[in-house]
Amino acid sequence: MKNKKPIIFLIVGAIILLFLAFFCCCSVIWFISQLDNAGSSYKKSIENLSTADYYEYELTRRFTTSFVVPQYPGNDTTYDITSLMIVKEDNKNDRMHSQIYLETEEKKSKADYEIFRDGDKYYYLNESMSDFKEAKKEEGEDWGFEPYKMFFNLRADQEVETLEDENIDGVECYHLKIELTKDDVQELIDSLEGDILNNVIALAGEEEAIEGAYAEVWVDKENKTIMRYALSIDRITVGLSLSTSTAQGIEGTCYFEDVKIEVLFSAWAEEKEVESPL
Q1: What is the pLDDT of residue 111?
Q2: Is 101 within a domain?
Q3: Please, are residues 27 and 33 in contact by the beta-carbon 8 Å criterion?
Q4: Is residue 125 part of a domain?
Q5: How many CA atoms lie within 13 A of 8 on its CB side?
Q6: CATH code assigned at 215
Q7: How far apart are CA 76 and CA 88, in angstroms?
């Protein structure tokens, strides 16, 4: 009687190989589906920023900015900038209310600035005012009354890299990484020029160099809403033009370093609305 063991070994080996091939195919299909799910969830989460009935977020911003002017050696200036913005977005009633706290990461008894939008009407209040004042429509649009459009640089057509899933406050989330483009960073620079530098210093054209610029987004798997956003830039180098009461057209270099913007979202689709503070 011939030895049947080699045949049995071949059959067992073939079964094992088929099983491994099936397992690998399933793994690849699952991985691709995860990428598709993460990508489609990201696109839906961007849509929800402008279509969800209601949501809130807290935006913390930290960075160091320094100015170097060769014409005045020894007078380099450095500032550490920190601010907190608390925003309520009411898309259902077409309203937005924002409170801005400068030089702090915590909510104080009174905001340094408040911004309120009601439809196409814009209002603002600062610490020296007792009542809100209406702004011209073009001023309101220039000031970025929709903060997420100015700071987040999120677009549905962006390429995203899927990282390991994470849990944010008990919510299972896709964790995605976004490489920022030159246009994204330029939008950020433009916002810093008007918001932080108060137009005393004009940044000259586009950035000269960007180092380590990327963003991360955590998207709720079930509801397709953003739970957290974090932007990080090691350094931005940009030319500047400084004008003072005694001198015009002084040229130099501005550096934005250790730029960190973090946004925590909450109250998605809750039965709330923004009430008028007027």
Answers
A1: 86
A2: yes
A3: no
A4: yes
A5: 4
A6: 2.50.20.20
A7: 39
- The CA–CA distances, whole Å, from 204 to 51, 183, 186, 249, 255 equal 36, 15, 12, 11, 12
Higher-confidence position of 271 and 186? 271
Per-residue pLDDT at 128: 86
What tokens appear for 103 in the block? 């030089």
Quickly tell me which residue has 């011939």 as its tokens. 2
Give the domain extent around 140: 5-266
Residue 83: CB partners within 8 Å, gap ≥ 6? 60, 61, 100, 101, 102, 103, 104
Question: What's the pLDDT tens digit per position in 33-45?
Answer: 444 577 788 888 8
Q: Report how far apart, in Å, the C-alpha atoms of 78 and of each of 11, 95, 255 are.
A: 74, 37, 9
Q: Can you tell me the mean pLDDT for 141-154? A: 56
pTM score? 0.75
Number of structural domains (the chain) is 1
What long-range pairs does 182-187 form, CB within 8 A, spacing at least 24? 182/206, 182/207, 182/210, 184/153, 184/213, 185/210, 185/213, 185/233, 185/236, 187/150, 187/153
> How far is 147 from 235, CA to CA, in rounded Å?
22
Task: Determine, yes or no, domain membership for 112.
Answer: yes
Mean pLDDT, rounded, for 140-169: 70
Give the integer Cα–Cα distance in Å for 80 and 66: 9
User: pLDDT by residue (tens digit) across 74-99?
Assistant: 778 888 888 888 999 998 999 999 88
- Tell me how far apart the alpha carbons of residues 76 and 257 are, in angstroms, rounded to a whole number: 15
Residue 278 lies in a domain: no
Assigned token pair, 69: 């002017």
Interior/surface letters 8-47, b for 16+ CB within 10 angstroms, e for the rest: eeeeeeeeeeeeeeeeeeeeeeeeeeeeeebbebbbebbe
Give the dihedral sign, CA 103/59/141/237: positive
